[in-house]
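Two entries, shown back to back:
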Amino acid sequence: MEDESHPKTLYVGNLSRDVTEILILQLFTQIGPCKSCKMITEQPDSRRMNSSVGFSVLQQSSNDPYCFVEFFEHRDAAAALAAMNGRKILGKEVKVNWATTPSSQKKDTSNHFHVFVGDLSPEITTEDIKAAFAPFGKISDARVVKDMTTGKSKGYGFVSFYNKLDAENAIVHMGGQWLGGRQIRTNWATRKPPAPKNVQDNGSKQLRFEDVVNQSSPQNCTVYCGGIQSGLSEHLMRQTFSPFGQIMEIRVFPEKGYSFIRFSSHESAAHAIVSVNGTSIECHIVKCYWGKESPDMAKSVPQGFHSGRSSTEHFKTVPVPSLGGRVWIPGAVPARSCDAQPGKLQHGWLPDTVIRLSLSSVGISGLSVRRT
């Protein structure tokens, strides 16, 4: 039986009736050595059927042939999938995907209770997390998410339970436990809402970790999360993002509907962007980007995000006579045109001495200023 974690067989569909097994083998062996190719030409009706070679495919009403191509190595099959899907063979754009065995057909778990498992060691497998969470109740599904090109773990996975209480107990008791060489993180999985019917796709694509992690420098650990028009709080952001890694700082701007989350590592931030972008939080679809590489997240705006408004519109100042100046309230970047005066507050900064303010009278808490 084929190893489901490292599949070697591809489904190739939407083929021209002039395509032969020999032609398919000639094309795919240019990518890697092929073990076999089996062409299926009969498709009597529209239903899921098991083919004569032991793989399952959803039959369509058309009579287009399809085939299964088996490689000797998983890496060659993955490379062929990336290279051949969408290519034209004899004038038809072929569809290439992983072939699935009948036993691997997944049941509908959309109404089950899903647990996110983060900070997984590279060597941890699906069977490992299934065994680790099995004591908490009956598991309907479990998987470690892997890069389809390299076959390597992305460092997180999901476990689904039939019973909500079992899932809750797993989250509470497994968070911080050692699995392999790392302490894992657990939380409720954030699931993407289904696309509304009769609504055209907005063109957004599922983000890939490899793309996101390279969009900003390795020193950048800050995530922008926007689009939460109500209910935004630090607790909500910590609950949403803590599964992806250690959080160093959170800044929330409820009136603007966005926040900044600074992680301890660039990779954790990248995982957070990939996993949370496009999901529903408090019934709002959120967008996540890299924040600017600034130690002061209150001045950060997402890279590639422009509101089209002057930066000074986002901050306002409040006089603080006891400190001899004014402080900036978070909301945007303060104006730069101001002459520095010793002992005065300039743009919210008093160099040399960091002061933590808690000014209930003006509704400010947690601002950092520096004495000049």
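entry 2 starts here
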Amino acid sequence: MASSDESVEAATGDRRHPAYELHRSCERDTNVTNMTGDTFGSISDGEKDEGDYALTPDLAERLVKRTEMRVAQVVASSAYVQRNCTLYQLPRFERDDFVLGDLIAFGGFSNVYDIDHFKVDSELTEEPESATQKYVVKHLNPKLAYNPKKLVVGAKDLVMEAHFLSALNHENIIQLRAWSAAGIAGFSAAGRADGFFLILDRLEITLAKKISHWREEEKQRKTLVKGRNSEKNKLLTERLQTAIDIASAVTYLHGRRILFRDLKPANVGFSPDGVLKIFDFGLAVEIPHHDDPETTFKLAGNTGTSRYMAVEVIRKEPYNLKADVFSYSILLWEIMALTKPYDGLLGHQVKESVSIFGERPSVPRSWPVAIRRLLRRGWSESISNRPDMQEVLTTLQKVHDSCSKPGGKFF
């Protein structure tokens, strides 16, 4: 897991953010469960029992001070976040104000639990939709008490995620609802890594799980008699709309100079009413405005997930917003192909294949020309050859409209 505070200068400069060296080696490329309960394997009773992972008073105090310093540095270089952050206007809760439910996601850095119910009345619980709306709490994995380096990285990323989410307002981006009353000081007040927490809307299913469902539907569709093109088009337009919604969210982020850096199916979910939401902003970074949109910046390499990582990020070269375009293109291919990209390869093998041998997923000739061209441009090794996300969004909307018309065909 790499962090979002490593640089705010163009690649022609020579200054790196003080946290660059700390974070660049902590790549976020582990298989974990996601925040909707789509687990990679079962959760044993032993994994649910976090035990007592108390921080020593000295470690807790140092964690608070270091996190405050690093967050202040990142926010100082993030003009949009500074102007639009509403974090301190959101409801705040003590840990004893709610009862935890099941552990629904866990990983090397954070755990996510259902909130069974709140024990206090608040702005959040009094909202009209509160009777049906479900929430989750996200906090650091308490076991990080035994890994101070990851603890520092995770703490800064989680606090910055709160700042980013509070500054964003888009239908397809998860909403931050509340956070811990003590703020960053919660790490020392509680004496635990989970002393700082976020309260978010609960999502029902991730795109990873949805793709699995689509794959099964596609198998069933192929068993139907010929001539059921209407059913085929329905499934395809649903997938295209999903791709459009993701593109809309990323276009919104890029319009605010925010680079997401970890686009993948496990970071895209769906609300109970079916609205797509991208989540997990732990790697997001705001890059400064520059007159030349092709300007690249010195940011941490090896940041994100290998299977979706841009070639320049793998190589630890300077990059810009178009690193997300590369990742999005791989994700779009997966949505259309219903197959994991580079299936069968391990993370380090994917990196080698992509960055050294120029491998990319195979694009069927039966796909629309517009999408085939979009993919090949989007994952081009040359950053300048890639379209921006607005062009990606416009192209997909045209393909979707054409496919949705009576008699319209995708293939």
